[in-house]
Amino acid sequence: MEPEQRCMALSTAILVGKALSWLPEVVERAKALRVNAGTSPLDVGPLISQAKQKVNSLIQSGVDEGAQLLLNGRKVKGYDNGNFLGPTIIGNVTPQMKCYTEEVPGPVLVVMEAESLDDAISLVNDNPYGNSTAIFTTNGATARKYTHEVDIGQIGINVPIPVPLPIGATNFYGKSLHTDQNCSSQWKAEDSTVQTLSVYMPSMGR
Q: Which residues are catalytic?
C-alpha cells in the first residue's frame, strides 16, 4: 500500500439528523492530526505524487460542484514542495459529486447529510463501492436495523471498519464471497462504564 492510501479507510461520513451538530468538533480534531515525513511522531504521511494530483483534483471538483471545503489540507506548512496533503473535510456533498462517486486515495473525509436512518441506508446501498461500513449509535434497534438492511460485506457497530475480519467484496467489486461479518462494541454516555472491545482492532497507538 502506498503511504496514507488505505483502501479500507472511512472516506465518507453520513450525519443523520442532529448528528450534524458534531461536524465542528470533527473539523477541530482533524486539525490536530500531525503531518510530517516521519522524522517525528505523525498521524498523516506523504502521498505518492500521482495520488496527490488525483486527490487535489477531486477536492477541487467538490468545491466547483458546490460542496463546502470545511478543512483544506492541500497546503502543509513546512512541506510546500513535497507530496504532502493534510486532513481535508468536504461538507454539503451530494451523491452526484465526483468527490463522492470516485474513491479518494488520501486523508479526505466526505461529509453527507441524511434526514433519517432510512435515507442514510439508501445512500450506503446505492454506493457502488460496497466493501465496508460502520454505524455509531446508542440505540440497539437502530444498530439492528442498519446491519439487517445495508447490503455490505463488513459492518462495524460503534467501531471503525473491522479490518482484521474476513471480507468478501460486494457491488462494484462483485457479489461473490459475501461474508456478512459484523464487529460491535457498546457506545454509552460519558458517565457510563467503558466496555472493552472483544475483537482486536488497530488503534494507531491511541
A: 7
